[in-house]
Amino acid sequence: MVETSQARGNFIHRTCCRICGSTKLDKFLSLGPSPLANNFLRVDQLNKKELHYPLDVYFCNKCHLVQLLDIVPPEVMFKDYAYITSASKPMELHFAGLAKDVVNNFKVSKDSLVVDIGSNDGTLLQYFSKMGLRILGIEPASNIAQIARKRGVTTINKFFSKDCAIKIYKKYGFADIILATNVFAHLDNLENILYGIDYLLSKDGVFVIEVPYLINLLDNIEFDTIYHEHLSYFSIYPLIYLFQKFGMKIVDIKQIPIHGGSIRIFVKRLTKKQSQNVSKFLSTEQNAEIDSLKIYTKFAKKVALVKERLVKLLKTLKNEKIRITGYGATAKGNTLLNYCKIGPDILDYISDTTPYKQGRYTPGMHIPIFPEEKFHREPPNYVLLLAWNYADEILQKEQKYRQKGVKFILPLPVPKIL
Ligand code: TMP
Ligand code: ZN
Hints:
Elements: E1 5-8, E2 11-14, E3 25-30, E4 56-60, E5 66-68, E6 70-71, H1 74-78, H2 89-105, E7 113-117, H3 123-130, E8 134-138, H4 142-150, E9 155-156, H5 162-172, E10 175-181, H6 190-200, E11 201-212, H7 214-219, E12 232-233, H8 236-244, E13 248-256, E14 262-269, H9 277-287, H10 293-319, E15 324-327, H11 331-340, E16 350-351, E17 369-370, H12 372-377, E18 382-385, H13 391-397, H14 399-403, E19 407-410, E20 416-417
Parallel strand pairs: 7-8, 7-10, 8-9, 10-11, 15-16, 15-18, 16-17, 18-19
Antiparallel strand pairs: 1-2, 2-6, 3-4, 4-5, 5-12, 11-14, 13-14, 19-20
Helix pairs in contact: 2-3, 5-6
Bound molecules: thymidine-5'-phosphate (TMP) and zinc ion.
């Protein structure tokens, strides 16, 4: 049997592409070793050894999937999870729109079952419930699954898999809608997941995925969205390859503005119908030459330049005794901070609205996290916008403080003072 992975201490290194199995893989960027991006530390953990893992990015020459090959066991990453959907108001609005989009464009009946993979605190499912549909969440993080249950969202505290799909079918029947928002990129064994989807999805059902889009990542130099949880950086081309293996087809794609530029993909069993959007996306990808390693080596050079400029800017400000804080203790912020080595000597603290993160410290760089009231009470001179994906909302929300002179620093694609 061909070896497809090797155990390397506390993580696994894949030796072949997670979609096509090819071993023609080229490493083009190394951002680590890094700690886990959502592993916010309590004060008693600060002096303990923190595990670091490689954060290397590869390009598959055969199916063009951009991916990580060093895999931290999901049980380690998702057992106790810090991200909660309802902490970000813009995500609530976004999910309300997603529920409407799906129900308006695909056939559902009153007793249709909606299954959400990686259902978090149940925010998205609640919108389907309000429309009278049956809902079921699958959420591996037990702390988050508990929150969802308290809100009345039936939630299975497990990783989705083929076995899990069989159990769901036996108890609830087929699903007309299966959702996977911001979770598909987290999955290593995509084939097992697809077996599960294939088993559970009704004949005419729709599988809806939202993932950050590789083209946006490359265009806006969003290198900070690379962290161990995100194993794949999707474009349409490799996804078509994946779904074809299961007799499924992408029937429509929409560009959506969340998380720095994402795509919403609708997948059905093989059907003749396909929106023209699919070929439009494919030709955009061809024009961007995402099939050639050259693009990725260029990207890596741009990443190094962002680091150089950002660190220079922050150090210059700091030398002038200017007070700087961070805004939004995001997971991606931790890639940025660790890669650029920005610590508490530069950022006094980071403000964040998530109660779980408040009072904790960022992984690796150990910057303390405080509720946003601290930012309002003692505004800094400059603030590094780590939650840049919500730039519009945050700049508007903090308008009063900006008028008082607080300056926001946008780190990407080129460090900029606003
Ligand atoms: P996300 O980018 O993964 O959605 O995480 C956003 C983080 O930023 C989350 O921890 C909540 C925080 N946040 C704030 O602190 N203030 C805000 O106004 C917004 C929109 C988010
Ligand atoms: Zn491949």
